[in-house]
Amino acid sequence: MNADRSVAYFSMEIAVDPAMPTYSGGLGILAGDTVRAAADLKVPMVAVTLLHRKGYFYQALDASGWQTEAPVDWVVEDFLQELEPRVTVTVSGRPVQLRAWRYAVQGVKGFSVPVLFLDADLPENTPEDRTLTHWLYGGDLTYRLSQEVVLGFGGVRMLRALGHETLERFHMNEGHASLLTLELLDERLRQAGRDTATPEDVDAVRHLCVFTTHTPVPAGHDRFPCELANTVVGHRALAELADACQFEEQLNLTYLALNLSHYVNGVAKRHGEVSQHLFASYVIDSITNGVHAGTWVCPPMAGVFDRHVPGWREESYSLRYALGIPPEELWAAHEQAKRALIEQVNRETNAGLDRDFCTIGFARRATAYKRPQLVFSDPERLRAIAAAVGPVQFVFAGKAHPRDQEGKQAIQRIFQMDAALRPAVRVAYLPNYDMTLGRRMVAGCDLWLNTPRPPMEASGTSGMKAAMNGVPSLSILDGWWLEGCIEGVTGWAIGQDGRSGAPVDDAKDAGSLYDKLEKVVLPMYYKDRGAFLEIMRHAVALNGSFFNTHRMLQQYVVKAYFD
Ligand SMILES: *Cc1c(COP(=O)(O)O)cnc(C)c1O
Predict the structure, then answer these.
(1) Neighbouring C-beta atoms of residue 165, cutoff 10 Å
(2) From the CA of 188, how far away is ligand 1's center (Å)?
(3) pLDDT of residue 241
(4) Residues 234 and 323 in one domain
(5) Å from CA of 206 to ligand 1 middle
(6) Which range of residues forms the domain containing residue 202?
(7) Residue-wise burial string across 240-253, b where 16 or more C-beta atoms lie within 10 A, e elsewhere
(8) Whose CA is nearest to atom 8 of ligand 1?
């Protein structure tokens, strides 16, 4: 049974179905797109994550634009199949029983990749332990580390209980999964009947493991105080591997993964370089992220591709041939997607958006380094540009982490910009950003905006989704856009390539953003539709054909899985 899988993909969040709240944002979407690509390409993968019975959270915005959070209710049995085996992990000295639920992700040629959702909500467990797989990124440090024990130790044990004996690679999507290395080490020792690991044991585990790091921010890497780690994980391997996890003062899960993986990568070329600098004594490669074309291309555009780009669902490289699409067909499909978005925005927010106005989209986690308010830093200038060149309307979406007060304030300020800027500039903030809303937005806007503070954007993927739908980006040169931007061909850059090391200057970046809108993008949009359509076609042909998970996964196969 299950003798055919060779890659186990571990991620704290995976977005497999828009109606299942098992993800919070980019990391989970990437994991889902990876699994969907594996199913299309028949890569023998099995994925492991946690169930998240209460989800991340449901976001509502009150009349002032202030975010409130509620648990997400969903009926697990409606989506997932319960599997028989039970496994036990030890959390803070207590045995915790786990079961798994299965979701089968179907590829275009009928191959399927199972995703296992681990669940601790069983009557055998204490009431407290039953909640361990309830909340994605909820709770305190103890809760977080306990979840990581469930994912790492529990995940490997569940795979074995299900008969997966032929796994050759364990891919850790971010450091949350890195405790799996300790279980793999333990397996070896148990098989050999030994108590202590030799350097050969560690090498053997290293050969099995692959690690992808996702954040260039040192504080973004999971660390736990020593005492907490000893209490919660309480594992003899922790002491043995003290060096590997930098376990002197704290348990650093990034170092654990770095030390016990034979291949490590960042998620875009620049992010690989930044990570190499951050972790200088390791070799860090890069594989630039992608998105899954079949998932993110909107139905009207998919119809155009079906007519003019045969094979695009089976092989995303085919999008290269989008240069042959008649511009009027591209525009007609875009208008249909735009109409659907504007109708939804007007229905939900009463913003009175106009189908003929240039519509700019911005959707991502509301957090300081993403600078969601940059485009509103000089409201007078923005109003003057719209009055002189043509009206502009914005569609925003994105959640702030429940404890991120600054993020919530940013949402509220953007929400309130509408009243301040009407009528030449209109602003709508849609609540509860998720996969379904994301799909609508990346296809229905005319321009996709991203203004992170470099070098904080490891990759970013929503602009890739927009490109596949023929929507060009206007973005800061960071993450994937350093690779995807050909000025005036696939979209436009804000500011300079930050490699010079000059400090980030918000006012300067805002000035560059306004200049581009005023002098280049809006005049082209309103007065030279033919030129704008050329950019739209090149966004699909040059960026859609490359920034997809078919290309990305094939790089993982060659460089990390079957090397
Ligand atoms: C694509 C996507 C993200 C990630 O977008 P970034 O550009 O990487 O920030 C987050 N949330 C949802 C719902 C998405 O669809």
Answers:
(1) 11
(2) 39
(3) 72
(4) no
(5) 31
(6) 7-261
(7) bbeebbbbeebbbb
(8) 460
Residues with CB under 6 A from ligand 1: 25-26, 29, 364, 433-435, 438, 460-462, 465
Task: Give a yes or no: residue 215 inside a domain.
Answer: yes
What pLDDT shows up at residue 274?
Answer: 94
Residue 439 CA, closest ligand 1 atom number = 15
CA atoms within 13 A on the CB side of 427: 26
Same domain, 224 and 90: yes
List, in order, residues 6 or more apart from 380 with CB less than 8 Å away: none
Asked if residue 175 and residue 55 are part of one domain, the reply reads yes
- Alpha carbons 563 and 551: distance in angstroms, whole number: 16
Residues of the chain with pLDDT under 70: 1-2, 242-248, 498-500
Model pLDDT for residues 398-436, shown as the tens digit of each residue: 999 999 999 999 999 999 999 999 998 999 999 999 999
Closest CA to 260 of 172, 337, 162, 128: 172
Instruction: Mark whether 194 and 306 lie in a shared domain.
Output: no
Q: What is the pLDDT of residues 120-163, one digit of tens each?
A: 999 999 999 999 999 999 999 999 999 999 999 999 999 999 99
Domain count, the chain: 2
Q: Reduced to 3 states, what is the DSSP secondary structure of residue 141?
A: helix
